Amino acid sequence: MVERPQLRERARPPTERECADIPWLKVLSPEDRADAVDHLMVSVAVPGDRVCRIGRPSTFWFGVIDGLLKMSNDTSDGAQITYTGIPPGAWFGEGTLLKRETYRYNIEALRRSTVAGLTSDTFQRLLDRSIPFNRFVMNQLNERLGQFIAAREIDRHNQPDARVARNLAALFHPVLYPGVGDLLRITQQELGYLVGLSRQRVNQALNALQQAKLIRIDYGGVRVLDLDRLRRYTPPG
DNA sequence: CCATTAAACACCC
DNA sequence: GGGTGTTTAATGG
Question: Residue A211: how many CA atoms within 13 Å on its side-chain side?
């Protein structure tokens, strides 16, 4: 799955438990589901590992079983543009697979992560056979479009607290990231990386959001209390 | 000025 | 050991 063999663990079939957390498996017929599981592989990526790289042919549809990835792009001057974090439950890369193109962004592990991959052939086969699968993919694309439109709005307001709030809310998206639930495992360091702020400033923002009773700061993570208001947060004043 | 951040430190899980 | 809270000095709009 991960194209570069820097893995701690070789790719292996998914466990029952892991399959239970893959949302689109539930919509498939028993036959299609069996076919899919047969062509699912799971591996572990350590921090810095690239799950996919720009320019590589698309060979898998990827899903995050556990951990945290980030989607980024390299600019001409060597800097990185981070687009979004990818938390547990996310499935991505379907756009590239649909167009049968090469990947247009890098996906890198921020922490030790368990990543699943469905072979491109099987992905295409499911598209041909299964209407529920098509519906799932279509819904996924639609929800993600909403995410990116929201991301543009985030960049407009450069109020740090609001940016942290909106970015957090995006990561708690229940459809795109069903594995997150109401407790997102993310360090303040990682969040700073994704939002583009320092660790202290993220901590300051989190405390403001906690004071507003929108989240609760947990050790090594954030618990959402009111997702709707978190999404709409504006700083007092 | 004021906000932000890097660096350094002391806790604590 | 790593994540977190905090202080201090440097930086930049």
Answer: 9
Q: Which nucleotides of C are covered by protein (CB under 7 A)?
A: 2-8
Closest CA to A104 of A112, A94, A114, A113: A94
Q: What's the pLDDT tens digit per position in A76-132?
A: 666 667 888 999 999 999 999 999 899 988 998 988 999 999 999 999 999 999 999
User: Do A89 and A200 lie in a common domain?
Assistant: no
Residue A154 domain-assigned (yes or no): no
Q: What is the pTM of this model?
A: 0.88
The set of residues, in sequence order, having a beta carbon less than 8 Å from that of A139 and lying 6+ positions away, is A175
Distance separating alpha carbons of residues A76 and A117, to the nearest angstrom: 30
Q: Compute the distance between CA of residue A18 and CA of residue A57 in angstroms, rounded to an integer.
A: 26
Whose structure tokens read 């400033």?
A201
Specify if A216 maps to a domain: yes
Which of A148, A139, A138, A72 is CA-nearest to residue A105?
A72
The per-residue b/e assignment along A67-101, b for 16 or more CB within 10 angstroms, e otherwise, is bbbbbbeeeeeeeeebbbbbbbbbbbbbebbeeee
Nucleotides of B under 7 A from a protein CB: 3-7, 13
Is position A70 within any domain?
A: yes
Kindly state whether residues A47 and A85 are assigned to the same domain: yes
Residue ranges near strand B (C-beta within 7 Å): A 160, 196-201, 204, 219
CB of A64 within 8 A of CB of A90? yes
Q: Tens digit of pLDDT for each residue in A195-220?
A: 989 999 999 999 999 999 999 999 98
Find the Å distance, CA of residue A156 to C1' of nucleotide B6. Answer: 26
